[in-house]
Amino acid sequence: MIFEHEIPAGSRLYFGESAKAKREVERIASELLEAEGFAEIQTPLFSYHQHLGLRDTKALVRLADPQNRELTLRADSTIDVVRLVTKRLGRATKRKKWFYIQPVYRYPTREINQIGAEWLGGSLSEVLAVTTRLFEALEIEPILQVSNIQIPVLIATEFGVPLEWFATMQLERLLGTEYPWLGELARVQEPSQLAEVMEKVPEVLRPELAKMGEVMESCRWSRCVLAPLYYAKMRYYDGLFFQCFVDNTPLASGGHFVNDDICAAGFALYTDALVELRMSGKETKSLKGKGQ
Description:
The chain is an alpha+beta fold and 292 residues long. It is 35% helix and 24% strand. β5 (97-106) and β6 (110-120) form a beta hairpin. α1 (17-35) crosses α3 and α1 crosses α10. The protein is globular and about 60 Å long. The chain starts with 16 loop residues before the first helix and ends in a 12-residue tail after the last helix.
C-alpha cells in the first residue's frame, strides 16, 4: 500500500526553511558565476546521449520516444552542455563559459540537485579557482582533494596492475605488488611529499605527477590534499580532477575532459549536500574577515 503522503525513495522535497536555504545557495552561486563571465543554460530533461556521461549505464532511467528510440532522463549535465553549445547553438554564440542549476536523475528514483559550470577551453586551475570562490561566498571551507586519472591508467597500462584495484581502492593489493614505489605514492598527501617521491617513481609517471604539483602551486585554498592513486568513476575525465569534502561528505567535484575533440574543464556543486550542511547548524569554518 502506498500512502498519499509518500514520495519515492531518493527523491527530494524542500519546503519552508529548507526551500529558503536551497534558494539562497542557488542565488549566491548564480550571482557569482554571472560575475565570473558564465551564462546560464538549462538542458532538456530528456536526452539521447546520457550514456556518454556515465561509466555505469545501469544508473540511467530509460524511456522511449514516439519512434520507440531509447532516451533517458538527464543523469549528468556536463556532456549535454558541451554537446548542445557546440552542436546545436554552434555559430549562434561564441561564449565559452556556461553554468547550470538543475537536478539529474539516477535509477531507480534518485534525484540529485547540482550547481555546475563548464568552461570550453578552460584549465583545471581556472575552474578550481572559481569553485573555491564559490565556497568562500557560501562561507564553507571543505577539504580539497586533487588527483590525476592518468596516473592509475598509466600504472595499469605500463605495469599490469588491474585498474579495478584503483577504482575500488584496494590498497592491500596495491601495496602487495612488486613495485615498492606504489606504497610511496599511496602515502602522498602534501606537495612536499610529491616532490620527494618524484625521484622514486618510474619516469613515465613524472610528467603527470608534475601536473598535480602545478595545480597545487596555483591554488590558494588552505585545506588541500593530494591523492595520486585515486581513480574517478566519471567516464569523461581524462586527466586532472578534484573533489571537495566536509566530514567525508562530498560537496563538489570537477575535472578536465575532452569531448568530440573539444577540451574543457568543469565542476559541479552538490546542492542537496550544501543545503543539508546549512540546515544542520553544524560548525563550518567561516571565511568572513580572513582577508582571503
